[in-house]
Design goal:
The structure holds two protein chains of two kinds. Chain A is mainly α. Chain A has one domain. Chain A is 70% helix and 0% strand. In chain A, helix 6 packs antiparallel against helix 11. The relative contact order of chain A is 0.22. The longest helix of chain B has 33 residues. In chain B, 72% of the residues lie in helices and 0% in strands. Chain B has twelve helices and no strands. Chain B starts with a helix and ends in a 16-residue tail after the last helix. Classes of the chains: A mainly alpha, B mainly alpha. Chains A and B meet through helix 6, helix 7, helix 12 and helix 14 of A and helix 4, helix 9, helix 11 and helix 12 of B.
């Protein structure tokens, strides 16, 4: 009984709640929940193409969610994954439009550049916190809006493709495209948007898991988050840790932006993210900030994102209902303790 | 010369108008944080206010009813956050982020359900649409006065009334409030409800006074800028009001400069208020002190 209750108070309860809420949202929209769920799952898991699309959404959520988890583990509230994702994508798109080399090298360089873009954006917040004790909560939020205006300006102006009608960068040369997901037996993914970026995302999760549990840096990072005062007294350089954690967190989110540019869009525009950076917070919390569980959570939210469109088109349930469900899941999970006492935080 | 004066006047009036929603949200932030609850959900409460004001104006035809609805639904989200933050002792930041997603998603969901059109609502009756001054409508002028009255009222309430002092005590040392025989959780809950009502009022101004419809994302981070205004204003009502006007100035500046400086395009200038907020909180190194128990569940 106790075990069941404890599970219900955590991610399992949140998932159960998600189903109940989704059913309520469908009822409000005047749709039979059986119908709504049918289209939700058919649109996300009912065949090769839907599954591929679900995995594309999973990947888009997984990178920023891993970035968010890293910062949260260090006791830093990075709400700026959206902006970091955008900056990573922007830099990768800007360079990719002009850079051509062998495919593997080009893709590698573009992903690396995406990490730099996101890392700079996260690093600014880290520096402001480390140097001026400016709350990372506010600075990361503000930087989201700054990133959006900056990207909007660049793709409408200096970086605008002369050939495109809309505001976007010139397309990447095919050398910069991420290779399609390899065929499994006779099942090929060549005609879907699924690329090997899902493998890169999972590899990133495994690396993060290793860093958290098997390295001194990971131990110090967790110490800074779980017992900041003890960490400081034991000689951990807290400002340096703050800067590093937010930079790395941004870099992982930025890698995600570059993965969308090289894998899905093959160019950069500001519609790169429909709010992945905010959903990523829900993903990270449901995954309990544990990289491997975050992968599972990202798949769950990937189902919602991919199936939501189908549900809207065929059952008439507005897909924005998913945003509400995510918000309510976050509200419920807020009851769990993720941080040490906030007494050491920057003034907000 | 007269062109210069006209431009300065435009900038002044626009600053006043653009400050209004930030002032209300910032005052909401002050009362909430003074009681010890960090309200990241201000943005969502503004959204709820803006959306419900349009819905109820559309239903009844009366923007006054819409305004009341905006205040009510802002307060309702305040109640949810307040209840979670006090009796369930949740992480206030996490809960606030959740409130924001619920409000933004709920409004977008509602637009499709009620009006069957995504993105923006149809136009509704505006609050005080008549021109009072060349740049300011009657409704906007009323809101500017109301904003000042609220700042004055909150300042008086916090520093000059027993309940205000008790709320301050909740944010500094809730244990002392318990020892004095009062329930700090209840006081915090009331403060966050008031905070939501003020944010909802600011949101309603955006949708049914400054314009006459709701569109997705119309709050555009003003609730977050208001949080920066609370810090910049050092958790005092007049300080936060001043900071909100300061940020409102940069928003107004962006409109005035549009098309006047050819090398600085409007997309880049949209970043002005956010950059101002960023610099403001970074420039306060070591010189601010939040209420001691701010953000700490009791």
């Amino acid at each position: 009984m106790k075990v069941v209750l404890r599970l219900l108070a955590g991610p399992a309860g949140a998932i159960l709640l998600a189903f109940v809420l989704a059913a309520i949202a469908m009822l409000i929209a005047g749709v039979n929940p059986a119908d709504g769920f049918y289209w939700l799952f058919r649109g996300s898991l009912g065949g090769r193409r839907p599954i591929a699309e679900t995995l594309v959404q999973t990947t888009a959520l997984l990178f920023p969610a891993l970035g968010v988890s890293l910062a949260f583990r260090a006791g830093l509230f990075n709400i700026g994954a959206e902006g970091q994702l955008l900056m990573g994508g922007l830099l990768a798109g800007a360079v990719g439009a002009h850079f051509a080399g062998p495919q593997w090298l080009t893709v590698f360089v573009l992903l690396l550049i995406g990490m730099v873009g996101g890392g700079i954006w996260g690093g600014i917040a880290g520096w402001l916190r480390a140097r001026f004790n400016a709350s990372e909560i506010i600075s990361t939020l503000m930087l989201n809006f700054v990133a959006l205006s900056l990207a909007g300006y660049l793709v409408a102006g200096p970086l605008k493709s002369p050939l495109a009608s809309g505001a976007e960068t010139a397309p990447l040369l095919p050398n910069g495209w991420l290779p399609a997901f390899p065929s499994i037996g006779s099942i090929s993914f060549g005609d879907t948007r699924l690329t090997i970026s899902i493998l890169i995302a999972i590899a990133t999760a495994i690396v993060l898991r290793f860093v958290f549990t098997r390295t001194v840096f990971g131990y110090e990072l967790r110490a800074a988050g779980e017992a900041p005062e003890a960490a400081r007294r034991s000689g951990i350089n807290m400002p340096r840790m703050t800067l590093l954690a937010l930079t790395l967190s941004g870099a992982v989110a930025g890698l995600g932006g570059a993965a969308i540019v090289t894998g899905v869009l093959h160019r950069f525009n500001t519609s790169l993210s429909p709010g992945y950076g905010y959903t990523a917070i829900a993903v990270a919390l449901v995954g309990d900030l544990n990289p491997l569980w975050v992968c599972v959570a990202a798949f769950g939210f990937g189902i919602l994102e991919a199936g939501g469109l189908m549900m809207q088109a065929n059952a008439g349930v507005p897909k924005d209902a998913i945003r509400v469900i995510e918000g309510l899941i976050i509200l419920v999970l807020a009851a769990r303790r993720y941080f040490a006492t906030r007494a050491t935080a920057a003034p907000i | 010369m007269s062109a210069g004066i006209a431009l300065a006047l435009t900038l002044l009036f626009l600053t006043l108008i653009k400050s209004v929603p930030i002032v209300f949200a910032a005052l909401g932030g002050v009362i909430s944080e003074r009681s010890g609850v960090v309200n990241i959900g201000l943005e969502g409460m503004m959204t709820a206010g803006a959306f419900s004001a349009v819905i109820f104006t559309n239903l009844t035809g009366s923007p006054i009813v819409g305004l009341i609805a905006g205040i009510f639904f802002g307060a309702f989200l305040g109640f949810i956050l307040g209840f979670a933050a006090t009796f369930f002792k949740v992480d206030q930041i996490v809960a606030g982020v959740g409130i924001n997603l619920v409000a933004l998603g709920g409004a977008a969901f509602g637009l499709v359900l009620i009006f069957n059109q995504p993105g923006a609502s149809p136009q509704v009756n505006q609050l005080g649409p008549g021109q009072l001054l060349p740049q300011i409508t009657t409704g906007e002028a009323a809101f500017i006065v109301l904003g000042l009255l609220c700042a004055f009222g909150l300042n008086w309430f916090i520093y000059r009334t027993p309940w205000g002092l008790r709320i301050q005590a909740c944010g500094e040392n809730p244990r002392a409030v318990t020892d004095a025989g009062l329930d700090p959780l209840r006081l915090r809950l009331y403060s966050v409800i008031a905070s939501g009502a003020l944010a909802g009022l600011g949101g309603a101004f955006l949708s049914i006074c400054e314009v006459n419809l709701y569109s997705d994302g119309m709050t555009a981070g003003r609730g977050f800028i208001a949080l920066a205004a609370v810090i910049f204003g050092r958790w005092t009502p007049w300080g936060a009001t001043g900071a909100a006007v300061f940020f409102g100035f940069f928003e107004a500046l962006q409109y005035v400069l549009q098309g006047r400086i050819s090398w600085l395009p409007s997309d880049a200038m949209q970043a002005l208020p956010y950059l101002a907020a960023l610099f403001a909180i970074a420039g306060l190194v070591g010189r601010v002190r939040a209420p001691a128990a701010d953000g700490v569940p009791y």
